[in-house]
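> tool_call: predict_assembly(chains=two)
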Amino acid sequence: MAAQDFTYPNSDLDRGKTLLALLGTFWARIYSGKDQVRSYVDATALTLAQTHKDTLALAASMSRYDIPLFDTQTVVPIVIKRSELNSAVTNTATFDLLDEKFAGDMLFNVPIRDTFFAFPLPENMVNVRQIFNRLTFPSVALLSNVDFIVDTQREALIFNDNPFENPAVLKRAVGNDDEEIVLWGFCADFDYQRVFNQFAYALGVQLKTSHAYKEFVNALFDGLIDGGLATQDLDIAISAMCGLPLVRENEEVVEVIDEDAHGLFIATNKHTYRFRATAVPIVVVGQVVYLGEQLVYGFSVSEFFVGNTFIKNDRDDVVCCPAPNNFLTTHLFESITTESGELLLLNREGLKCEIRRADLTALALDHGFLSSCFYGDLVFENKTVPLKIDTAHKSGYTYVEFEVGGYPADVKKFFAEVHQRGVSAAQKPVNQCEPENRRGTLAHYLDKRARLVSEPTELTLPETINPLRFLVENVLRNNVFVIRINTAALGQNRLGLYNVRHLRQLLPPQTAAIILFELEPTFDKIQAPKLMKEAVTRFTGAEPIADNCGDLVNDLGVTVRVLSGTCQ
Amino acid sequence: MTIEINNLSQIESERVATNVAMLSQFMQERHPEVELTRGVFYDLVLYFNGLLNAAVQQNIEKILQSRSLLQLTQNPELADTELVDHVLSNFNITRDAGTPASGVVTLVLLSPVTTLISTEDVFNANGTDFLPTNDFVLVPTNEDNPTLTLAENERRIIAVGDGTYIANINVRAVTVGQGGNLKRGTTLSPNSGINNLSDAYAASDFIAGKDPSTNEEYLAKLSTGLAAKTIGGRKSYEALIKDQPVFENTLHYSILGCGDVEQQRDQHSLFPVSGGGKVDIYAHTNIFAQELDHVVEALYVGQTADGSLWQFTIDENMAPGFYEVRRIAKPEATGASGYKIVNDVRGINLPTTTYAPDIRYVYEGAYSRYQTSVIQFENDDSPTAGLVPNQSKAKYAVTTAGMPLIGELSDFLTDKNRRPRATDILVKAPVPCFTKISFQIHTEINEPVSDIALAAIKKEIIAAISRVGFAGQLHASVITNAAHKYLTGRQAVNDLDMFGRIRRPDGSTTYVRSGVLLVIPNEADKLVTGRTTAFIVGEDDISISSVTAGFTN
């Protein structure tokens, strides 16, 4: 899409004199009513400019990448009636639209009579930058987010001051006991669901129009055309669902990381990215960031293939790998545990690698991953647990199990099934090449001996095991990846995680994604009993490290910041 | 094209008014002295200017709409063929002209002599003409040459046992459309005399006939049109399949893999946890189970209390992925209801030299092209004298019912030119929910429901159910909505009943019934869920009666 152009005058449509001159000397200089002609030419240019803008938008709409989200009207009449002031339609307290608590000052489904003045929003309007009382030489000029706000959830236009009480606004009687005023909106956006109507309908994805929605749809289109979601398509789709914008340009430099009334924002030399106040940046000022990278701790994707539960630790493509010959077995993992108990591994150059799995507390496998005769999930935790060994099992084979979360009956069944399958495998005809090295049961595979000449015992089996690591390195490493989403960072403009269903059609069916939500902690409040006595006293305390006064001031006004080359 | 505005009166008055209002306001504010309510300036200058601007803006809107199939569908004035084709081209779709019906016809011959069937021999059924797809030569066979090698256009003549002989040929309808789809057993009449021919009837349900797609049907095709036709994401599997002419008329696909509860083949390792790497494709290729006639040689097993017990095998090539055997009778007993089936034991026969999927249990491979079955039935009307158990043989006509094209689709996807190494693909017919629908149409006495309307209602209901796919539920409103298109204001649907018989992959049966919502049970352990099971319904499964009731005047 073409970059915004703030040049004025931008074309001859902005130059009234030039247009007038085009009519000829008589109309421009000789005709006594040339001022009227000039005004007519200006008015015509205004409407033509709108048509020109519509034409450009039409051309942009041919591309799914460039299609404008909204139809922008340079000037649009806004008609409001006094009878509609704070009407039930626009100003009703409902649970789903309010963050405030119903603590006695408002009633459910009853219009809020507060200090604001709400009127119905014109149909399909989602934004308007300014509102005037006249097209020319206005005496009333109202700024969005300063003098009024557009509340698209309640479909209301909410003013700080009642426009009907403003003597500079002309009122007109409507019927016997009502009146209306006509205001002129400047740069108003209308949502005609262009993204859905032109493109997304083909995918059956209808959501509220937003940049994230367009990004999401484009990721799905790319996935279709590519034959499946590529890594970058998946990242874009997840970022759109989570409302976590990714770096848009090939290379950008972080210039500002700060908070304002809308939350956290990170400004680069190319774009400004907004996040919730609770999001945690993972970049610093001056850092160069690249296309598709994240700017906050939002989501991460862990691939377990080839047993590689580790990731590269810097930009030099230093890839960390498990130790040689340590891919397929879990019984040797003790050798890579440090004295402090930290799971640690060095790559070939001896550099320390980041262990991604160490951050993965646990995985719960549900019916999608378990055979269907389990009542609930089985939880494999990332911790060291003892290996329970039964060398006198009734099957005649050494039985092992370890701690797994879930219904006890499910856990028991799980290990019974594992053992039964192992026994069946062990009883198959012997490989004549290695008759003494037949392995079938889990205990056989965990046995540390190079050659299995007898049933495993406590002496030949490891004392402990890490259930999650066991699971990852023996099962999930083949076709599963994990998407971890930090819910504290979910953006206000997120599409909603339920849209993950659209990704299913684009993932290769032999693979699966497990989605982990990292939930925000909730804070409990204690209400003191009535009879409890309180006393105030003073004591000398340490100097606070930080003094934050959050949420006391909710200033939605415009803040001007200087950024290189980009207007916020 | 319909996007052109030929008449300025077609412009929306509101759009004109907005433009004129803006011009008027602008002039009024600068020159209050100018008369702007009516008169020369308003009528000839402002209004005209606003009108032309509105025309351009409306054209822009129309062009935008013309780029969207959704909006073309919603705006019939715009939906001309050229515009629709433009949009379809953006989704890699070309307009389809429909397909003619085709199928197998059994010719009943008077004597076992070589008989020629020409491509100019016209057969007619239900008003539709059919032509042989080739010049066929019907070749007699006897006990001396039972394994006679036939050329591609040669067909074997088989003795029925009643003095007549049969041979099968392939025919195709002359015209395009569903009208040529015949039910198995439908009689075809040759338009000219064919030497040695006694009779002809459809040996299978004809299913290939399809009318050209409607705009609504194209809407559903857009995503698969756009998707890469390759083995990749789930949608790409579907796109690859539907891109093949032979599969383009198929309905729905449910592609289940790692993480799907119905995917159990990827749990065959030591640990009962899904390891991925396996793909099960449930192919809902047709709305009803296609019936196919076969002539088999059954083996006499022994005597029973009521007659004789016979056995035959349906191998993996005879009726790939079939659901059940509908009828077994003597070949000459065309009107007989058939013998009682005593046993139906399914098995799996995997190839040893070519690709074979990982199937550990029979139910995992049920309704796939690897499925086999040993059928035992009881013949209660034939003498048993002289029959020797496990030696005596006799020919029987067997009718199987199943999803068409399962074998072809399985072979297509697992072909070595297509399947990536280590990609384990298993194509299956969906678990069948054989659905019976019955309802009454209450009507007033002066408005009886015609047979033509009833036939149209049945077709509409089938079309509506065929769009349900793997949804796991069938709402009564789907049926009533379809029916009401053909009813007047004084006719209404009443007493609707939906009854489903689900034949599970393990061979057991369960039933669902409702007048409001038919829901597929969630029995993932038995591979029965909404994602594996499809509603199977044909015209014969819909019963509609007309009742004069309920209207008082």
